[in-house]
Design a protein that fits this description.
- Helices cover 40% and strands 17% of the residues.
- With 364 residues, the protein is α/β, with parallel strands linked by helices.
- It has two domains: 3-257, no CATH class; 300-359.
- The protein has a seven-stranded mixed beta sheet with strand order 7-2-1-8-9-13-10, sandwiched between helices.
- A hairpin with a 4-residue loop joins strand 11 (220-224) and strand 12 (229-233).
- The relative contact order is 0.14.
- The mean pLDDT is 95.
Length: 364
């Protein structure tokens, strides 16, 4: 029999789901990971999530759910990490399409549950923003998680909500999350990270990168995102806790509001009303800004000089580590240059690569 894991926010949650599955159940166990194709602008220049019509080579699982094999391809200009992820891990990936709102997602989940009769169903969120009330000042991406939470609580099957790396997404503080966390399910170790080690070399998720780093005993302060948000890397970052699903729904105002939505636009409108913003609006605005930015070839000497300046300033802020996304943004480079930048600075200064993070030196 197959296990089912729902990656609450897509992206890095799907990578963490693959690691969690092997850690809890072993490599010989089978699992389907349901996830969005919602990779943000570092990978996909189009704002918002992709649906099945954005891919070629998908394979039907149920009437409204498609699996994403390694041979699938996003249709340009769309981008997606899912086919490459499918090629590098053991689990089967299936596409959650939120374009028909929470009701559409509920239908997709019910079809998958009926089809596989899974041995267990886990809803996994890295960081814990699925527990956000909606008014947190650091909240950045509530919609994806709220949609999966709204759908999962309407499925007639036992679903376990798991929070990995409390606070690592920088959206809800560990102090606020700690009283909400239930049973400790697992603490990731460096051995667990081996299941996704090749993925971490290219996948852009910051939260899952920090989850893996804490499992590898990296400690300090990691600066993330374009805004340079500081995230603490502690022993707590490698943990996975269960949280009561009903308690999460009671706390998440957006999830409760969108339960009967039948379109993504409708759910997005509720996000603007309850949280004061829509993460897709942010992506739309940033995509327009990036389109206006000319793409120039990397000049190694210039890049390393600006990296030195960034590191000096980061060190003064008490930062010990950062992500390659943060460096790309801080150096004002296009997201499509992230991989070239990563290869350049790792080859130039290999001792600073604390995989999958970048270590800020204590002195120049």
């Amino acid at each position: 029999m197959t296990r089912l894991i729902v990656a609450a926010g897509g992206g890095g949650d799907a990578v963490a789901a693959a690691m969690l599955h092997v850690a809890l159940y072993g490599e010989d166990d089978q699992a389907v990971i349901l996830t969005y194709a919602w990779d943000r602008l570092l990978v996909d220049p189009l704002p918002g999530p992709r649906g099945a019509d954005s891919f070629t080579g998908l394979e039907p699982l149920t009437r409204s759910v498609w699996s994403v094999p390694a041979t699938a391809q996003p249709i340009a200009p769309a981008g997606s990490t899912l086919p490459r992820l499918a090629a590098e891990v053991l689990q089967t990936f299936a596409l959650l399409d939120p374009h028909h709102g929470a009701e559409g997602l509920t239908r997709q989940l019910e079809e998958v549950v009926d089809h596989f009769a899974p041995r267990s169903i886990d809803l996994l969120d890295v960081g814990g923003d699925i527990l956000a009330q909606g008014d947190e000042p650091t909240l950045k991406s509530p919609l994806a998680d709220a949609l999966t939470l709204a759908a999962c609580c309407q499925v007639d099957a036992p679903i376990r909500l798991l929070i990995a790396g409390p606070g690592l997404d920088g959206e809800v503080s560990p102090d606020d999350l700690r009283p909400l966390l239930g049973t400790l399910v697992h603490t990731f170790t460096s051995k667990d990270v081996e299941a996704i080690s090749t993925v971490l070399e290219w996948h852009p998720s910051e939260a899952t990168a920090m989850l893996a780093a804490t499992a590898r005993a990296v400690r300090g302060i990691c600066e993330v995102r374009d805004a340079g948000l500081p995230v603490l890397l502690t022993d707590e970052g490698a943990t996975v806790h269960e949280v009561d699903l009903d308690d999460a729904v009671s706390r998440n105002n957006l999830a409760r509001a969108i339960m009967t939505t039948t379109a993504l636009d409708e759910a997005e409108a509720y996000s603007r009303e309850i949280c004061g913003f829509s993460e897709i609006d942010y992506e739309r605005n940033k995509a327009a800004w990036l389109t206006e930015r000319p793409l120039t070839k990397l000049d190694p000497a210039d890049v390393l000089s600006r990296l030195d300046q960034f590191q000096t300033e980061a060190r003064a802020r008490g930062v010990t580590h950062t992500t390659f996304r943060r460096i790309t943004e801080a150096l004002k480079l296009n997201g499509s240059q992230r991989e070239d930048l990563r290869q350049l600075i790792i080859s130039s200064r290999p001792k600073q690569y604390a995989a999958p993070l970048w270590r800020i030196p204590t002195d120049d």
